[in-house]
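step=encode ok
step=design start
structure_in=
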């Protein structure tokens, strides 16, 4: 049946499967902070190519750059600024680079779920999706010693099964959806779930501005200085509104010599403001769940 032939129950049912419920934006953040800052790095590495079939050695070498140069440069930047962050890691990338994950944890950051091999959830059969997320959680726990409490779905692709699986996994937050600027509670089939959504946006994602494909017209059209300007304006407005500034970056995208300043300058800009709380996604989700929505 074509979409224009659906009855109301059908299109309403699709929209209501997973919805934004009440806002979980607190009146003030931890210790009276005015704004919360959640920096995240999706350590996809070679899985971006593997999930598409792993045909290109060249593209996989770009993934390896993420491990060899990107993550170390980012960790150094975070250490110099003394701020925590969250790294979302596909299980296969964690298996390729277990030492990287252990270093991330040892330096005080969080690791969250990011699929098995960066598979696209809506293309995976429902029973298979469940198995992959559970296997990924077991794998990350085995490598780091810590069971992940949050998920960013690969490519922010969210199936009709995903939220159910996240709840079964006992996660406290998801960070893949886009219905708000600030944290909110996810509602499934009309029922509040207690699951915190820490919303993402392509506007606050480095890959959108920097990705390139040799064989298509896709090029980085936005210079790094303009990307920094967009991110700063997103933060500035979050600060005025007392909200959350959540940023997604990728080690194999932003870890380059000509781009790492975006992260460095952004953190410096944010730290020039009074009352900013830098925290992991897990800490922000817990705080929002306990203090938000009053
Ligand atoms: Zn990813």
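sequence_out=
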């Amino acid at each position: 049946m074509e979409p224009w032939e659906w009855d109301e129950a059908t299109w309403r049912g699709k929209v209501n499967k997973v919805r934004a419920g009440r806002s979980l934006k607190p009146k003030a953040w931890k210790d009276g902070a005015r704004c919360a800052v959640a920096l995240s790095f999706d350590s996809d590495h070679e899985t971006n190519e593997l999930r598409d079939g792993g045909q290109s050695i060249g593209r996989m070498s770009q993934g390896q750059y993420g491990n060899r140069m990107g993550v170390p440069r980012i960790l150094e930047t975070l250490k110099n600024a003394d701020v925590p962050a969250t790294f979302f890691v596909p299980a296969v990338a964690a298996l390729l680079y277990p030492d990287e994950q252990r270093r991330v944890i040892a330096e005080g950051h969080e690791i969250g779920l990011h699929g098995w091999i960066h598979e696209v959830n809506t293309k995976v059969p429902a029973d298979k999706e469940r198995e992959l997320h559970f296997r990924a959680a077991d794998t990350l726990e085995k490598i780091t010693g810590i069971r992940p409490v949050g998920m960013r779905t690969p490519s922010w692709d969210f199936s009709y099964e995903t939220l159910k699986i996240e709840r079964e996994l006992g996660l406290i937050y998801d960070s893949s959806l886009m219905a708000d600027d600030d944290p909110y509670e996810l509602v499934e089939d009309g029922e509040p779930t207690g699951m915190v959504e820490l919303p993402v946006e392509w506007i606050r994602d480095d890959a959108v501005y920097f990705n390139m494909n040799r064989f298509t017209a896709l090029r980085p059209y936005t210079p790094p200085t303009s990307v920094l300007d967009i991110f700063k304006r997103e933060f500035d407005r979050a600060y005025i509104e007392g909200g959350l500034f959540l940023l997604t970056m990728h080690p194999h995208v932003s870890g380059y010599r000509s781009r790492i300043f975006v992260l460095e300058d952004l953190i410096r800009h944010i730290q020039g403001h009074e009352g900013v709380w830098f925290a992991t996604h897990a800490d922000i989700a817990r705080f929002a769940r306990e203090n938000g929505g009053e």
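step=design ok
step=annotate ok -> The beta strands are 18-23, 35-42, 86-89, 110-113, 150-151, 173-174, 184-188, 191-197, 244-249, 276-278.
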